[in-house]
Amino acid sequence: MAYTTIDDPTKYFQVIKYVGNQTDDRAMTFDGNSDMQPDWLWTKVRSETGSHRLTDNIRGLNKPLFANGTDVEGTEDNYASFDSDGFSLKNNSVNENNRTYVAWCWKANGGTTTSVSASGAVNASTHQANTTGGLSIITYTGEDNIGDTVTHGLGAVPGFIIIKDRDNSSNWAVYHHKNTSAPETDYLFLNNNNATADAANYFSDTAPTSTVFTVGQNGDTGDADAYVAYCFTEIQGYSKFGSYTGNGNADGTFNYTGFKPAWLMIKRTSNAENWFIVDNRRETSNPRGVKFIYANTNAAEVSSDKHLDLLSNGFKLRDVTGFHNDDGETYIYVAFAESPIVTSTGVPTTAE
Q1: CA angle 263–331–260, rounded 5-degree value
Q2: Can you tell me the distance from the alpha carbon of 109 to that of 40, in angstroms, rounded to the nearest whole number?
Q3: Residues 188-230: pLDDT tens digits?
Q4: Distance from CA of residue 346 to its chain's centroid?
Q5: Would you call the peptide bond into 64 cis, given omega within 30 degrees of 0 as the criterion?
Q6: Could you tell me the CA-to-CA distances from 308 to 4, 213, 263, 276 in Å, in that order?
Q7: Which of 143, 177, 182, 334 fits a 20 to 30 Å CA distance from 19?
Q8: 130 contacts 109 by C-beta, under 8 angstroms
Q9: Residue 1 above 50 pLDDT?
Q10: Per-residue pLDDT tens for 256-297?
């Protein structure tokens, strides 16, 4: 079996940074090795305080959700289109003059969707799934029952799920398959810094399967409202959703991913701490973590030394900090690749 099915990760994930200029229909073109038409954009202003805006082409390009808050789905005319190799901006919240931005962009299935009718414990839903890239974007209608299921279309078990109620003020519920020894019994919130908590009414204490994930009788995952879920399954050489224990040492923990990360999000789960994001476009060489973004706040990009290295086969912690390396604390991470350590034809990535 080949080491990876994705030799060029830029087919499925790209990062772009830019400066706003208040121009309508402004085309933003990716610089990856492959052209990529995105289906989901996560955009954050870097130079100023401002909300994280998450937009996808199932809900509509003018329907942002805000990762750092509990707000309902908004209406903003931010994007003119998702294009064959990028996206086009309007003169609005993600294109204000002289402000700097970053956009993290994923490809699902080009907007092609599959609908599932409600039947028994199965909730009505629509998904666009990319089984190669391991991403499914799902909209569904909750029914306020313990044990209801939602079809994701990945054909593999999701390791990372984010869910948001679109109709009512609610938290962003997060499932991560390495959160605890029984992750289906626990949850995190993307929009705050809380430690992991145990509750049966988030995922009904039921692990996701290769066809469905289970929701609970809870306003954050399964009330009688409209929801969106972003589901990811690990793809060898492209994505990794792992956990580790910090050692409180400048010679910190090394975490093997099997690829050189392009994007890395870390969350301390044993105690309260912000979600910590670095990428390969805002910082192009090691050490990274000098410029980082919190997923759960509207703060501008933070400039402070929280050193870590993105390497050809994983990441290495280089600082003592609660964000990613306090002694004895447990952490989860989500990582997407710049390049696999070895391609399907046996070509190794250049070490860094």
Answers
A1: 30
A2: 10
A3: 999 999 999 999 999 999 999 999 999 999 999 999 999 999 9
A4: 29
A5: no
A6: 25, 34, 13, 12
A7: 334
A8: yes
A9: no
A10: 999 999 999 999 999 999 999 999 999 999 999 999 999 999
Kindly state the tokens that stand for 169. 């003020």
pLDDT digits (tens, 9 = 90+) for 244-255: 999 999 999 999
* CA quadruple 198, 203, 204, 207: dihedral, nearest 10: -100
8 A C-beta contact, residue 112 and residue 129: no
The residue type found at 212 is V
End-to-end CA distance of the chain: 26
pTM of the predicted structure, to 2 decimals: 0.97
Distance CA 187, CA 162 (A): 10
Radius of gyration of the chain (CA): 19
- Tell me the C-alpha distance between 13 and 133, whole Å: 9
